[in-house]
Design a protein that fits this description.
The complex is a heterodimer of chains A (about 375) and B (about 80).
Chain A (H helix, E strand, L loop, with lengths): L1 E6 L3 H13 L1 H5 L3 E7 L3 E3 L3 H6 L9 E3 H4 L5 E4 L2 E5 L4 E4 L4 E3 L2 E4 L3 E3 L7 H4 L6 H13 L3 E7 L8 H15 L6 E7 L8 H14 L2 E4 L3 E5 L4 E4 L4 E3 L2 E5 L2 E3 L1 H5 L23 E3 L12 H20 L11 E6 L5 E6 L12 H19 L3
Parallel strand pairs in A: 1-2, 1-9, 2-5, 9-19, 11-12, 11-17, 12-13
Antiparallel strand pairs in A: 3-4, 6-7, 7-8, 10-18, 14-15, 15-16, 20-21
Chain B lengths: L4 E4 L7 H12 L5 E6 L2 H14 L2 E8 L2 E7 L3
Parallel strand pairs in B: 1-2
Antiparallel strand pairs in B: 2-4, 3-4
The chains are: A alpha/beta (about 375), B alpha+beta (about 80).
Chain lengths: ~375, ~80
Amino acid sequence: MKRILIVGGGTGGTILANNLARRLRQEIDSARVSVTMLSASARHMYQPGLLYVAFGKMPASDLYADEKALLDPSIHFHVDPAESFDLDHNEVKAKSGKAYGYDYLAICTGSRPVLAAVPGLMENAHHVYTEEAATKTAEALRTFQGGRIAIVTGVPHKCPMVPLELTFMMYDYFKDRELLDKVSFTYTYPIGRIHSLENVAKWAAPEFDRMGVRYETLFNAKEVDGVKKRVHSEEGSVVEFDLLITVPPHKGMEVLEQNKLGTSGWIPTNRATLAMEGRDNVFVLGDTTNLPISKAGSTAHYEAEVLGENLARLATLGGAMRSYEGKVFCFIEAGKDRATYASFDYKNPPQPQPPSRAIHWFKLAYNRLYWNSVRGLL
Amino acid sequence: MSEARIVDARGSFCPGPLMELIAAMKAASVGDELEVLSTDRGSAEDIPEWIKKVGHTMVSSSEEGGVYHLRVRKAK
């Protein structure tokens, strides 16, 4: 029997597992292939929904579904987080003490915000990367009566469009509350333009100019002084705030660092085959790779489809045929009722179009359709 | 020419090389020279801008066989 082990029950892992179950139905039924998933949680979170929670547009309860219910019944699902990886002997040991052997391994454990990377950030900034933080951000926005808002971004981070979306959505939120004349926005970004994708930066800069959003590039937060309400940068500049919103720098999961699988928890990955560098039966998906592409659910989705096809062939016929071409699709909320999108791959940069209501409504529909997407129905 | 500490960021894409230089600069002493090796064009443009903004010194910049060599000196 060929054993496929998936470590991680997020977007990439769930789509991969269901894709394999569909492709290998006969082999699984006849016990020639097994698919096992290890996850740290019994619940699956729709992480892009956190942005809407922060603006009171989605109840936190809508973020979650039962992971087992999302998976094909043939998949062996265990809430048993991986703790050690013995890649030379094709074995993963989990928290329960149980060892899981495999012929093919997919690692898709995601990423985590690391606010501690900047002293003072955790104590003084709001963000949208956990349910608790998004809920607190909503309360901070609701009770804010005016002043200086600073949006400070660290890299790398999950969901490339969030810094822009937070800014656009706050602008419309305070416009609706008739507070714009009492609010100023300062947006900072670590590199020499306001977004990592050049064409997205070119599209967003005139929007910021129109809205009166001040921006400072080459700004890497060094520390936050919560008493004086100032963010100091590595570059020596200072941004003052009354409300500090951050898109914090991220790392891969600690367990991957502890197992020395990759610096900062990002696993060196072949950009086409998605194989871990130096291994031919270990694959990496989603945020967990060290690839220079967006850490986003759609990245994991497109990668999972390619890997699903390749792993199904490897487990049966013996040879992978498809390459991941770097495909990513990200919606960009450009306010409370307008959105655009960025669609790109390794060779073709995004070309954001003027925002429209139709794309915004499509995004809201996708927030619901996501659950069918991870089931493999969409 | 004094010896520069090499920050090898080849194969890393924007903003990786800049982030590696920032980390290396933190650990360096005033007067130290560092040479960033990068295969990323965007970073080759960002790094001189960053050096100028912070007030360090850009010593030299060249490109050879697709690898950018950016030599910088910590000034403060």
